[in-house]
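Here is one chain, start to finish.
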Amino acid sequence: MPGAVQAPGAPRASEEPTQDMFSFECQQSRGHACSGASPGRQGMRAPKSLARPGDHHPAIAMKTPGLPRALLLLAVIGTGVSGFLLEPKLSVQKYTELGSGEMAVCEVSNLAESDSLLINMYLQKEKLSTTQTREGDKEIAQTTLSFDKAGNYNVSCTASNDKGSKTTSSIITVYNFPDPLLASEEDVDGEDILITCRMPRMSPKVVIQITAAQTNLICEDQTSTERSCSLPKQREHNGMTVTCEAVMSLPGKVLKKTTTTVLDILFAPDFTDDSCPANRTLSEGEVNVVLCNAVGNPTPNVSCSNDKLTFPKGIMSEVAAHHSGQYKCRANNNLDNAVKTIFVSVQENPSKLRNRASSGTLLPAMLVLVCHMF
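Its structure:
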């Protein structure tokens, strides 16, 4: 038509759309209708330069009756685009210990106010009970995961509305890592103590290490669930602390658990030579203490006596010349008994007796015969 005005950039009447035009599906949804589309023709074209990948508000090109060769650009503007569903975001720990509850959260962002959305969460193929809330332009669902055995599990989240659905999934590893079980027992021959650390029902495998303070242990190779070490049976090891440490290595994470025990080494009673001398000479007028220590596990009962006279532990007795003689200290527990003989000689001390007489006092000398046990 002569004098007709052609819109800038519009294709001529005889031209087909150029290669920089692309087609997309125009779908009718709440609040956003596709107008101007002919029945059966939902495909529309818009310049690529106006609809770049990553745009949240694509430009829509439409033909208008008043300007058949012009392009009318409509921008869909808002905080969210109804019908455009983003990938759900699933938040869950990759590793969790058996027996502990693990929270899983799924959320979908960039929703329009009028959008309705349903979120379902699954453990393997089992649908989980969830709590779903709306916070601004986000729809959030959460649930607590529980497991009855160790292993790898698939956790998934599906968000859906009347336009379709999208799913996100993640693998969670459930490990079993109980506290180590540490025990000690004597070998049959009684020469060594066997120390065993066990890790029952563990998964995946752990490394077990047994240590004793300032003592070298002879350890066997570890099996799948336990490790054993031996220690020479010596009374000096009674009361020693032994530690078992178990180490589990996960990708990017190292876990440790420890258990300690105190060795209880049983042995028969015995008197220590330094505290219980076989011969002791005392002088009248002096205060003397005779100690008799007995060791054993279980703790022994100890008694000391001279002929038919028994000395209570820790009680002082008057000493005179007739107290000279042989004393026996006895110690016993359920393993055995021990006897220690002490010869006590009490000598007269005339000078001290004269000093006491001149001062008007005559005090007896005191002998403290004490039997100890520990």
